[in-house]
Design a protein that fits this description.
By secondary structure, the chain is α/β, with parallel strands linked by helices. The protein is 21% helix and 22% strand. The strands form three sheets. It has a five-stranded mixed β-sheet with strand order 5-6-8-7-9. Strands 1-2 form a two-stranded antiparallel sheet. A two-stranded parallel ribbon has the order 3-4.
């Protein structure tokens, strides 16, 4: 995620818009206060090689290729933005237990495939997130787009809703277990 020099290409496919980041470094860190507000995570499959603060009990970096490893427990995912985002969203949707941080590009194919039909909740964050670089310094410029947190699994949706983070929470799909029991939120 490079917020100092973004260059997006738009492409239409099947009537839906795709956004592709075409320039930049993709290693910007989630603010530690956001991680703390969301509770403890078991795994961060997109961790930075240089990690000034913990995001989870276990980390995979770009050198480990987090997509190629088994995911277990509650997962935190701040994926590389751009072309790779879809693979991480697909994996999180299949895993079904975690929270992912992505741009709030709600009209994209990624949202229509992996968020709207599969997630249990979304927090549209108030304002823009100021990410940190790997030296724990916050740049003076923020991202070029709004961000959101997407929860997979009912417990993660509840954690997101009750996190105290500023924004607007939107409940989505109930889990299959709740639907089988005839309950809806």
């Amino acid at each position: 995620m490079n917020f100092l020099n973004q260059n997006f290409q738009n492409e239409r496919r099947d009537g839906l818009m795709f956004f592709q980041e075409t320039v930049g470094k993709e290693e910007w860190l989630t603010p530690p206060e956001m991680i703390r507000a969301l509770g403890e995570f078991d795994l961060d499959p997109c961790a930075s090689i240089i990690q000034p603060w913990e995001t989870a009990k276990k980390h995979y970096t770009i050198e480990d290729d987090g997509l190629s490893h088994r995911w277990e427990g509650r997962v935190w995912c701040n994926p590389p933005y751009g072309n790779q985002t879809q693979f991480w969203l697909r994996r999180m949707a299949a895993h079904g237990n975690g929270i992912v941080l992505v741009f709030a590009r709600t009209e994209t194919m990624n949202f229509f495939r992996y968020v709207w039909p599969k997630a249990q909740g979304i927090m549209f964050l108030k304002g823009r997130i100021f990410f940190y670089d790997v030296t724990a310094i916050r740049p003076k410029n923020g991202p070029g787009a709004p961000s959101c947190l997407v929860a997979y699994g009912d417990e993660n949706a509840l954690m997101l809703k009750e996190s105290g983070l500023e924004g607007q929470y939107l409940a989505l799909n109930s889990s299959k277990k709740e639907m089988q029991n005839g309950k809806k939120r």
